[in-house]
Specification:
Length: 935
């Protein structure tokens, strides 16, 4: 392979003259920074638990059109240097220059540009696109490039493990190094012999599932001490492995254990102290299925499980029964996902080198073992004109710039192991992708779940990958084809023809999709003709990644291939504070659909109040589908997500990071059907999540002690019981009683709560007044207050009221100005939570899951230190309480929950505590940019 690669490189370099760079975004004679109005901002991040400041950097410099959210995330995540030192970066200019200048210098060093002027123009175009949020590199680039740290640029890794203890120990070590550096990895364990096979010593093998325990414990430890809080890893097993049934059941069995421990009183919530006692929780699991297996399931045939040592049949199972177990486990706990092996390898450009056996944690990077992939994503909304047109020319040129930069980075990048270094440099895998697809479709007036929406998405994806491979062929003529190309020329060309044929088969609807599809077909034809002459620089060009943190950096409304999360979102304001707004994509879509400005304002106002478009004034019912979202009143059906994945998959080198959410009412049969549909539609991988299928949900569940079992008494003679009738006696409050008044805001409603207590403690009276209320509502509030007060005086426990009224949902609802109760489902929900905090002892509140901000902070510290939290002996009297400053926290997911009255399964951010939102097959925090998986 090495000799042929050298000959190929020499042949292509014979005609090399370097790239001539064309001006696209910049203005001749004007530096990109000089076209922008820059402003200074203060970034102050507060701790959601107690309001303390956990990050502060004042006077940072950003363009005036960057949001507060993007500013905060870039400042806290990507600026290098210790805070309050001269080395600390303070301007976006410094960050972008650090990266862009490194790329330019490496491009000049390795012969990418024809002249120094071309190199300078390349740098300026790159700078312009980055500061205007046209695209972004993946997070490791921003972390490491241009710093004294190793120049790690890849976010995705695939490892390998063989059937030996040495190889397994290497796997543990390599995985740990990758986690420490803030990236994720995946591995296929199918080479490890089954637990029913013999060792050379004569004993029985442990099997791959047993070795997963050690790797899971390692990941759980390193995630706390490394650069990221959570490790991201994928574990895969082939469906013909003799231990496949044990592998399928691992996480579902652990979920049963979690339920049993929870019912026994252990803290098994997400991040709970006792959740660490269960296994396999740090990895995504996937089963690699073959066409043979799926056909056997379809036809009701048996299927052989093969030994790893000699390939002999260890067991024969009913294929349909095994597939049923796979679906039951996924239904129960969302794991394992499924990967379609034959489809994956049918689109493999380097099959002569080896098969694709594994993926990264989010399943979008699929290639050879011991390789890595660096990612970059384009902001699709930047190419949509106000008239609904798509700027094909600028999009194509932007893809050229990004692919060139990504390939340059491989030349100077550092990698965690020697094997990964050699293989990545030999095959040069890239992962260009995009974000804001859902926003683009909505702004274009196209439903996400529609043939028109899918065809436009497919055409854009085909154009992106077609241009990427055409530029890759041009790069091969300048700096040589990838080293492994000579050996893999035949399969690589075959896969390129498959992509081109898929582009030719597009059936676009409408003038925009037709224009994009025609250009895509043209690019594939030109790129393949050039590539067949001089090869390609890259064995892989594109993936669709989650685009979590970088999506917020680009101020994208939607991530990756996802639809919009919801029509309303939580927005931070420059001067501090926050507000709930309707996504700006909505009015743009309404104008594109032909609505007048007055109608746009009325519909937008309705959405702001209700969170959906149903019955919005003047909105035609046939346009409802344009505004369907991932969550909320009109959520997109699961099959709508799968069909979108199927539409774009033929135009992606790798695969798609996406989890298909299913309702809690979904059946095992529906999961089976979903996995079958994914296979038939040509997907490479698919994962599902059924709502509330996991115990460790973000919202705490009260853990009430079980009723003690009745003691078994010896049999005795029957006793005639004396019946005594008990009647409650009212205990009136004295004329002069201690009391407190609390002002509050829930959503847009303001009010006052007055609570009076007995001198010997205990709540005895409440009065509730809402601001701007009419006489009728005032009378109802007075009657309600009197009814509650009288009942309290007759002995009805306050805890009973709290249990009944807590979580009651109605408008007004939303964010509050109370630091202890950040979000409320209604005024009643807020009132009785506040009363619980002021008058109930800690033990009773713990059962209800009601804590003050300081208690939450103390409980968390105790958990982190491995100690037991001991509450203060007494609560300060109302007059002693010093009101804390309101904490500005929140997320779009929490806003959606408050509107719909339905809790999301998204986890809480480990860094800042706010509710995260879905991004591909992982989650991302809008507050600080932390992700639960790939960057």
């Amino acid at each position: 392979m090495g000799e042929n690669a050298t000959v190929s490189a020499k042949r292509t370099r014979a005609n090399a003259g370097g790239l001539k760079i064309e001006r696209v975004w910049t203005t001749e004679g004007v530096h990109p920074y000089d076209e922008i109005t820059w402003e200074r901002r203060d970034v102050v991040m507060t701790n959601w638990r107690d309001g303390s400041i956990n990050f502060e950097q004042r006077g940072v410099e950003f363009p005036d059109f960057w949001s507060v959210n993007a500013t905060n995330i870039v400042t806290t995540k990507y600026f290098r240097g210790a805070v309050d030192t001269p080395e600390r970066e303070w301007s976006l200019k410094q960050l972008v220059d650090r990266v862009a200048k490194t790329y330019r210098a490496a491009g000049e060093k390795y012969g990418y540009f024809a002249t120094p002027a071309d190199a300078e123009l390349f740098e300026h175009e790159l700078v312009w696109m980055l500061v205007h949020q046209v695209f972004s590199f993946n997070s490791p680039v921003w972390f490491n490039v241009g710093t004294a740290s190793p120049q790690q640029v890849s976010a995705c890794f695939i490892l390998s493990v063989d059937d030996s203890v040495d190889s397994i120990m290497d796997w543990y070590k390599e995985e740990g190094l990758i986690f420490k550096g803030g990236s994720g990895s995946g591995v296929n364990l199918s080479r490890i012999r089954a637990s029913r096979e013999l060792l050379s010593s004569g004993g029985t093998a442990s099997g791959p599932v047993s070795f997963m325990r050690g790797a899971d414990a390692s990941a759980g430890t390193i995630k706390s001490g490394g650069a990221t809080r959570r490790a991201a890893k994928m574990v895969i097993l082939d469906v013909d492995h003799p231990d496949i049934e044990e592998f399928i059941a691992t996480k579902a069995r652990e979920e049963d254990k979690i339920r049993a421990l929870r019912d026994a009183g252990f803290d098994m919530d997400l991040g709970g102290r006792d959740i660490v006692s269960v296994q396999y929780q740090n990895a995504n699991n996937s089963v690699r299925v073959s066409d043979e297996f799926m056909t056997s399931v379809e036809e009701g045939k048996s299927f052989d499980l093969l030994g790893r040592l000699d390939g002999r049949v260890i067991d024969t199972v009913d294929a349909k029964g095994l597939f049923r177990k796979l679906a039951e486990a996924a239904w129960a706990c969302a794991d394992p996902g499924i990967q379609y092996d034959d489809t994956i390898n049918d689109w493999h450009t380097c099959s002569e080198t080896g098969r694709i056996t594994a993926s990264n944690p989010c399943s979008e990077y699929l290639h050879l073992d011991d390789t890595s992939c660096n990612l970059a994503s384009l902001n699709l909304l930047k190419f949509l004109g106000t008239d609904g047109s798509f700027d094909v020319a600028r999009f194509s040129k932007s893809v050229e710039f990004v692919i060139t930069a990504m390939d340059i980075s491989i030349s100077f990048a550092d990698f965690p192991t020697q094997k990964i270094t050699e293989n990545t440099r030999a095959y040069r895998q890239l992962g260009i992708g995009y974000a804001n697809l859902g926003a683009l479709l909505m702004a274009s007036g196209l439903p996400y779940d529609s043939e028109g929406g899918r065809q436009l998405s497919a055409a854009i994806t085909a154009l992106m990958t077609g241009v990427a491979y055409r530029r890759s062929a041009e790069l091969a003529g300048v700096v040589g084809a990838y080293d492994g190309y000579a050996r893999n020329a035949t399969p690589h060309q075959r896969v390129m023809r498959k992509h081109a044929a898929a582009a030719e088969a597009l059936q676009p609807q409408g003038p925009v999709a037709t224009l994009v599809a025609k250009e895509a077909q043209k690019q594939w034809k030109a790129g393949n003709a050039l590539g067949e002459k001089q090869g390609w620089r890259n064995s892989q060009a594109s993936v669709l990644a989650p685009t979590g943190t970088i999506g917020f950096m680009m101020d994208c409304d939607t991530t990756g291939v996802e639809p919009d999360l919801a029509l309303v979102k939580f927005k931070k304001l420059v001067g501090g504070g926050s507000m709930q707004i309707v996504n700006q994509t909505v009015p743009r879509a309404l104008r594109n659909l032909g609505y007048q400005e007055e109608q746009v304002e009325a519909i937008t106002e309705f959405i702001g109040e209700h969170g959906h478009v149903v019955d919005a004034p003047g909105l035609k019912p046939e346009h409802y589908a344009v505004f369907d979202c991932a969550m909320g009143e009109r959520s997109i059906a699961p099959m709508g997500h799968v069909l979108m994945m199927a539409a774009v998959q033929p135009f992606i080198s790798g695969a798609i990071s996406k989890t298909v959410n299913m309702p809690e009412s979904a059946t095992v049969e529906e999961v089976e059907q979903m996995y079958f549909d994914g296979w038939r539609l040509g997907l490479k991988a698919l994962a599902i999540y059924r709502d509330n299928c996991k115990v460790g949900q973000p919202l705490s569940v009260s853990k009430k002690d079980k009723e003690p079992a009745a003691a078994v008494a010896p049999v005795a003679a029957p006793v005639v019981e004396k019946v005594i009738e008990y009647r409650p006696v009212r205990k009136r409050l004295p004329k002069k009683r201690p009391g407190q008044t609390v002002s509050f805001t829930v959503g847009e409603a303001e009010g006052y709560l007055t609570a009076s207590s007995y001198p010997d403690d205990g709540l005895g009276e409440v009065f509730l007044k809402l601001g701007k209320q009419g006489s009728t509502l005032a009378g109802v509030m007075d009657a309600f207050s009197i009814a509650v007060s009288v009942a309290l005086q007759y002995g009805v426990p306050l805890q009973t009221y709290v249990e009944k009224f807590m979580n009651m949902k109605f408008e007004p609802a939303g964010m509050t100005d109370d630091p202890d109760i950040r979000l409320s489902n209604s005024v009643m929900d807020y009132i009785f939570r506040r009363l619980a905090l002021d008058f109930l002892p800690y033990e009773q509140r713990a059962e209800l899951g009601v804590f003050t901000a300081s208690e939450r902070a103390a409980r968390l510290r105790a958990e982190e230190e491995g100690t037991e939290y001991v509450p203060q002996a007494a609560t300060a009297a109302p007059s002693d309480v010093v009101p804390a400053a309101p904490v500005r926290v929140g997320s779009s997911t929490e806003v959606l929950e408050s509107i719909t009255g339905k809790a999301s399964d998204a986890p809480l951010c480990y860094t800042c505590g706010t509710k995260m939102r879905p991004a591909g097959s992982c989650y991302v925090c809008e507050g600080c940019g932390s992700t639960s998986g790939c960057s």
